[in-house]
Design brief:
Radius of gyration: 15 Å
Order of helices and strands: HEE
Strand content: 25-35%
Structural class: alpha+beta
Shape: flat
Length: 56
């Protein structure tokens, strides 16, 4: 059963905003790739992939 209320949408929007802020802060301070993904349960995940600083 899918729940679709204004309150739920508001909470999701707040979570997305918080994740975007976390991603910006992370990118400002470290050499990371950050992305948002939706997992198999339909929840947002914050995925961070660290980059190597080694020069090839």
């Amino acid at each position: 059963m899918e729940v679709d209320t204004i309150r739920d949408r508001s909470r999701l929007k707040e979570k997305i905003t918080n994740l975007k802020t976390a991603i910006k802060d992370t990118n400002d301070h470290q050499d990371n790739f950050c992305t948002l993904a939706i997992n198999e349960n339909g929840h947002l995940e914050h995925i961070v992939s660290f980059l190597s600083k080694a020069k090839v």
